[in-house]
Amino acid sequence: MSNASAVSFSLAGKVALITGASRGIGLAIAQTFARAGAQVVLNARKPDVLAAAVEQLSGEGLHAKALAMNAGRPEHAP
Fold first, then answer.
1. Which parts of the chain are beta strand (E)?
2. Across all residues in the chain, what is the average pLDDT?
């Protein structure tokens, strides 16, 4: 059986914006991309839940930043 946490591709030098990244599949994708070397920007609507996700990834030694906004609403973009 293969190690599910092993990453077999490199995203070094890349930045990845992951929407819905505060939990579940989105957070798992962010974690995988960060392990592959990407700087990840987590996006979700709830700042408190998003901050907890960034803290979790940072606690694993991964680089992550938060962008709290509704990605489906252009007027929310910074």
1. 15-19, 39-44, 64-68
2. 89
